[in-house]
Model the fold of this input.
Amino acid sequence: MSDWYRDFANSGFGTTITKQLGLPRPAQLRRYEPGQPLLPGPAVVGSAGEGRLRDEVTGLLRDAGVTVVSPVAADGSTDGERLAAVLLDATGLTGPADLAAAHDFLAPALKRLRPSGRVLVLADPPTGTSSPAQAAARQALEGLVRSLAKELRSGSTANLVHVPLGAEGSLASPLRFFLSGRSAYVDGQVLAVTAAELPSAADAEQPLAGKVAVVTGAARGIGAAIARVLARDGAHVVAVDVPAAGEQLAQVANEVGGTAVALDITGDDAGPRLAAQLVARHGGVDVVVHNAGITRDKLLVNMDAARWNSVMAVNLQAQLDLTQALLATDGALKPDARVVCVSSQSGIAGNRGQTNYAASKAGVIGMVRSWAPEFAERGATINAVAPGFIVTEMTAKMPLGTREVGSRLNSLQQGGLPVDVAETIAWLAQPGSAGVNGQVVRVCGQSLLGA
Amino acid sequence: MAPQTRKAAIVGGNRIPFARSNGAYARASNQDMLTATLDGLVARFGLQGQQVGEVVAGAVLKHARDFNLTRESVLGSRLSAATPAYDVQQACGTGLEAAVLVANKIALGQLESGIAGGVDTTSDAPMALNEDMRRALLAVNSAKTLQQRLKALSGIRPGQLVPEVPRNAEPRTGLAMGDHAAITAAEWEIGREEQDELTVRSHQALAAAYDRGFFDDLVTPFLGLTRDQNLRPDSSLEKLARLKPVFGQGADATMTAGNSTPLTDGASAVLLASDEWAAEHDLPVLAHLVDAQTAAVDYVHGGEGLLMAPAYAVPVLLARNELTLQDFDFYEVHEAFASTVLATMKAWEDPAFCKDKLGLDAPLGSIDRAKLNVHGSSLAAGHPFAATGGRIIATLAKALHEAGPGKRGLISICAAGGQGVVAILES
Done:
């Protein structure tokens, strides 16, 4: 499943050809590996208006071992090596005029950005003010960041985090995620954090140490990648898949030192059965990843009830039922649990031939948003991750043309990998991500679809 | 020394779906199948890298190179390489006997945990050199000079290239096991229809158990096979009635390929432990192995049927445990042939047999058919000789666990050589 075009575009001859012809030049993305520093180079922190986060962010960066340099002068001169990250504190915006400062800070800094660089803008949510001018300026940032993400090349990304007053403590986890290689394929996104009770700092290398994580659909593809990444981060993984996939499931469970559970999650008693086992064998579960999903594509007019019903049963109803069963079973779901539901770009943008699939995946988003306040009350979170074009065994079977076009229609000009989805899920599963709740995080390289 | 014994707990089991001979596992070796089965068990109970007390397993049809089959399988599995293992072989009783050995060591406090299993392939079966060829080659091997070697080689003849293929026959009678069973069936006047009925029930019960997810935590698919290849959910009396008898003579022949088990490939394993070990590992206890008994009959000169030994073993086991044949909630009587199950039950009901052969004052009586092989047995699942014991133990232990505490099950397995292994499980 190698990206032959990306490899070609990065070869000596390929570089010349693609440049001359103006062809897409997808980059080798910087991906996370244990032991890696948060950033491969220095970061710069600037502000637009009198913000409240600059010192906090600078402190967080220094704690993570990042060198923070002073802003780049307008003429592009700098006091050191090229930048790995550019952070803008825009919490001081009072009106559109303040946005000029954002431009003045970003423009010279971006010229100094390294490949796979990170641009992260921090702002108040537009809804948090009664001033139309202030709301306009805050909303304007979305247009700025999303366009900037499209302008960046060489695997660099730009994202926006909304930090309402009082939620500053929740920033550390998303900040680390967006700067690190874990967010390689997350681009052009807007994330909102909320105030939450945060646990004491966990081991950065093993943020899930001592946690039990259940992953549905874990026998292959994205589910297997999720199991691997959660285990790498320290979790004991309970890998669930249909009995027919038991051979691969056992291999995944053995690879990650976890437990295999063969279970049809659409079965009548699947939820209670799984909940009972999680209580008896593991003393409850800390992380639940609803990943299992199927496609049964057909145009709506040609779609039979079986296709509609099976997709709904696996992709949506099972997520509802399993979550409900875990909530209803004493001791099954830890109070500070993290539930992550896999949605899809199709659920946001729609896709021809996928009315059933898109409906189920859009439904997941509705479910997550509805449950979020209840989860917040118990110190838990529930979020959705919406993958875009992810290179799997399934996409490998697509016709070459469809696959090539599909994989290039995003700002990073390449398909994502299962590990990119897994890293995002593992981040949401961290104890430190308590302030990220009810969110939909797209892992799509800023896909053109549904943007 | 442990002052007193304790009952070994059955934590769970795993097997690969059983395949018909030269079917899905045609190219899988005993070691491949046993390793995959152990790995499935490891995955189910999170035993990666862990050392269990001992792994005991065996195969009936075994290559000479597989002298340390179980230990080699352990080394290829995800268990700790510091897990000791040994092979046993008691024909079709291998799997149950292995479990009894593990359970007894647990009972004595010599083990805290152990895995018992069995595997057999009739596809990747060992084939021996023709005896004349073997002698000739041994002579070549022991020759010291070139001249001697050439002389020894000159003794080889084309006819010696014909290998010795293993046969499913008793060495002392030359009769196939089915032929022996047919003699017993005729003796006990076991009819064709009752054999076919038992067969249909076996297929239907096994299919129903799969359908309700009963085997979800007992079976791990292997090489693309997700259910037993021999299973015919649509089996019916009409279809079975059309089959021609393959064992027995003349008009009285009743045994067909349908109501006899086919040659099968497969493997199974059962995790046993002390209650303490299971609790420490947060693992369930499905049932305990209470007691076991073996018996053997003289089928060569003694006038007893080859597969009738369990009929002798059960009353001994019952007496020692002060139980009657009716004191059980489940009966697992291995279906080597439908007629074997029926003949065994008929013998227990027969006053003359129970008095003359078993030395009992009264017959053992009949057993409630509704409690017999309720999740199907070998006629449907197939019978990879050494793997059948593990299949039955795990199936019965789970059934007992589902039924609740204090339930009791009886296992009866007949074996080649006129032997039988029987055991009692209790939830």
